[in-house]
What we know:
Number of domains: 3
CATH superfamily of the largest domain: Band 7 domain
CATH class of the largest domain: Alpha Beta
Amino acid sequence: MGTDNIVFLEALEWFDETGQELLHRLPESGSGEIKYGAQLTVRESQAAVMYYKGRAGDAFGPGRHTLKTGNIPIITKILSAPWAGTSPLRAEVYFVNLKVFPNLRWGTRDPVAFRDTELGFVRLRAHGVFNIRIVQPVLFINTLAGTMGKYNTEQIEDYLRRVIVSRLNDYLGETLDTLFNLPAQFDELAVGLKKRLDRDFIRFGLALDELYISSITPPEEVQAAIDDRSRMGAIKDIDGFVRMKAGMAMEKAALAGNEAGAGLGLGMGMMMPAMFANTAHAGNVT
């Protein structure tokens, strides 16, 4: 067996030039021959984990480390004799990026069904952003990255997006009765959803630092009903609401630039309050 594909490693360090890499392995493919006494440099925002014969050692923190038997206990445990002299060690080193990765996007690809106590079944779309960071490097490698040479936010974002949407669907059904109450509960929903997702993320060695809900959007006709309810609450009486709707009809007709439409809108605007008054009067006579 030749050694053409073997990488000999004496100085091990890694710079994330993209700002998007969560993990980088040295060498990127296969195993490397790490010389006894090789220098491993780990930066403040990093951790480094050596894998030998498929098993992980402890994570190295920031600083420069000289790789010898004494500071890599897993090697002593696996080897029948201490690693020393000139014999290289076939192993891999995973650099893990510990910084916060902000502004990852989540959202519903397809509308999710929500049972509203007043509106019935409503199909909703939702979008937002979230921030993550790696808090358990070995767990992250073993559960998500595996043996990949590189692992970036694009590769993990789609999976985490599906986790968030799944939990959102369940959480809305448990905590929200009707969309009419949604504006008052927006922040509360985001906080509660994050707490529920914390358990999902930590299973992969991740922390969900922040979760934001940018929008929860119903179909246009449902949004119109919500807007009407809000206006009614502000007006406090049905007569005022009818006058407001009449004014809106006149405004639409005027914007359309159609004289006949404008006349019709004006006529309806004048007739609607009278119609409502007659109905109320008939009810009183009865």
